[in-house]
Amino acid sequence: MSALLPRPQRLSDTVARQLESLIRDEGMAPGARLPTEKVLCERLGVSRAVVREAVSRLKAEGSVETRQGLGAFVAASPGQGSFRLVRGGKASLAEVEEIFEIRCVVEAGAAELAARRRSAADLSRLAAALSRMDRALDGAPDGAQADDAFHVAIAAATGNTQLERFLAFVGRQFSETRAPTWDAGGLRSGRAAEAQAEHRRIFSAIEAGDAEAARAAARAHLVAAARRLGLTGLAAAFP
């Protein structure tokens, strides 16, 4: 299973990590100015476009700040602008196990709360995501995106806007763990069909307002999803 999550490393990701190392290794204090684009291009052997994309990534993460006409500077509180589950490159098996543990804690609790608070509109949104996944079972290309939408819709059904924002924010990273379910291999092997059956059990519990069953169904889904990817630790952690 070493090929799990085959996310290719983009050049801008590599440069962003190199810039982080530069800031750290050279002891650049908050407010210090980074070298100019021209200097960075020469030093790292990449184009201006790559440098700009790397700086934009670090800006989004809160590591650097940019000032119009002046360049990029080390942020006042580096690294506190955002949070990423995996810092560049392909996730290791240990990191994937940890991501699934986070999902189990967050998504099982969200399903429980959604069952207590869901509205008719929430149920319609969940049903729409289920329908998209049904179509994906028949060959439509957006199964992983519909899977993402289903889980974010559960968070929305809790009525807790911060929880919905959190799951939407990390949804792209969670999506990396969902992609193998909906790719060609997942469809052929039956992984996608199994996952969809589990989604329907979660939906049924939320629709019925059964909070305990919703939590159990969400947890069972995540344990099964981890098992389908060859990860066995979650079953022990959440028996």
UniProtKB/TrEMBL annotation:
SUPFAM superfamilies: GntR ligand-binding domain-like, Winged helix' DNA-binding domain
Signal peptide region: none
A single MF term (Gene Ontology): DNA-binding transcription factor activity
Keyword Cell inner membrane set for record: no
Pfam families assigned: FCD (PF07729), GntR (PF00392)
Sequence ranges assigned to domain HTH gntR-type in this UniProt record: 9-77
Keyword match DNA-binding: yes
Keywords in alphabetical order: DNA-binding, Transcription, Transcription regulation
CDD domains per the UniProt record, alphabetical: WHTH_GntR
Organism superkingdom: Bacteria
PANTHER family from the UniProt entry: TRANSCRIPTIONAL REGULATOR, GNTR FAMILY, UXU OPERON TRANSCRIPTIONAL REGULATOR
Name by which UniProt lists this protein: Glc operon transcriptional activator
Native species: Azoarcus sp. (strain BH72)
